[in-house]
Amino acid sequence: MTTAAEPLRELYPAIEPYATHRIDVGGGHRLYVEEAGNPAGIPVVFVHGGPGSGLAPVMRRFFDPGRYRVILPEQRGAGRSTPRGELRDNTTWHLVEDLESIRERLGVPAWLVFGGSWGSTLGLAYAQNHPARVTGLILRGIYLVRRSERDWIYQSGLHHLQPEEWERFIDPIPAAERDDILAAYHRRLTGEDLEAARRCADAWMRWEAVNSSLTPDPGLIATLTADDTVLPAARILAHYVVNGGFFTSETQLLDGVDRIRHLPATIIQGRYDLCCPPVTAWDLARRWPEALLHMVAGAGHSSLEPGITDQLIRSTDRFADLLREPAPT
After folding, report:
1. DSSP single-letter state for residue 328
2. Are 62 and 72 in contact (CB under 8 A)?
3. Minimal CA–CA distance to 237: which of 316, 174, 182, 299?
4. What dihedral do alpha carbons 226, 231, 233, 239 form, nearest 10°?
5. Residue 234: which domain range?
6. Known active-site residue 301
7. Does residue 88 sit within a domain?
8. Does 51 reside within a domain?
């Protein structure tokens, strides 16, 4: 346990990838994948959020580079994966099997799954479908794509806390369509009117950015609304949210916990997470009592908030000790 006297852990030093790959996964999709750290280290897959957001160099820094082989893929249509923003053959289940394709291509018998926000969603879906290929899970800012969670962010809930930003978010949508804001956004983001799509993409991704940390981060807002990425990222995000994550039931990921309860797991949640409220992490932890839940005081959603970073680094260090023996083939 962390005590008040202990200094917060910080990110490991910046590193560059030692290898990059382009992996063809069918349907015209080619995934960008990078590897960093120790090629002979403990395999860990970094499952990025979004969906649609891609990687940033800081994501390599949550792992001891001497102990981990860090594998960082960009999901279909995201970042440097091509074609950017493509929605065809792009569902959660395609992404699950993409992770398996990457694991097999790179010769990894099993790996630790590390993911936050949408990365926690996809990490859970992957682990529940391929539990024998997972050595453990570190999950942050839990998102299960349930109707209550979608409504909180995009229809009725979070606007009580962010009224001025909410007005900016709904401004592109005519009043007559605001009874289903998600559907209205989805129509425009995937429509033929590129000017309207871009205007909606800017508003959507600003809303995502301002709610992704305890206080708005100008750097994150600039990154998520950048000219060359904002529309593809917003299209993919809307595609997944409107379709409820492509799950067959509201509780699919909770109901699937029994398949992975034998795996070591840590859940890290900011107490004041605006976009992924703590009740979701609490619901997951109640279904998974063997998992270690850290509710981080004074923190929001971002992995870069000091208390969240501290717990993530402590967790990867603990798992490095736990997994130092190679997994059987």
Report:
1. P
2. no
3. 182
4. 160
5. 147-244
6. yes
7. yes
8. yes
Catalytic residue among 48, 53, 98, 117: 117
Instruction: Return the structure tokens found at 28.
Output: 């015209």
For the stretch 13-23, pLDDT in tens is: 999 999 999 99
Band of residue 10 on the pLDDT scale cut at 50, 70, 90? very high
223 and 130, same structural domain? Answer: no
Question: Are residues 290 and 193 located together in one domain of the fold?
Answer: no
Note if 273 is an active site residue: yes
- Annotated catalytic residue within 98, 301, 303, 315: 301
Split into its structural domains, the chain has a count of: 2
Q: Are residues 50 and 131 in the same domain?
A: yes
Q: Which of these three, 244, 274, 309, is where a domain ends?
A: 244
Catalytic residue among 81, 273, 302, 303: 273
Q: Which uninterrupted H or E stretch holds 47?
A: strand 42-47
What's the pTM value of the predicted model, to 2 decimals? 0.95
d(CA 35, CA 105): 13
Question: Is 180 designated active site?
Answer: no
User: What pLDDT does residue 329 have?
Assistant: 44
pLDDT tens-digit profile of 223-254?
A: 888 888 899 999 999 999 999 999 999 999 99
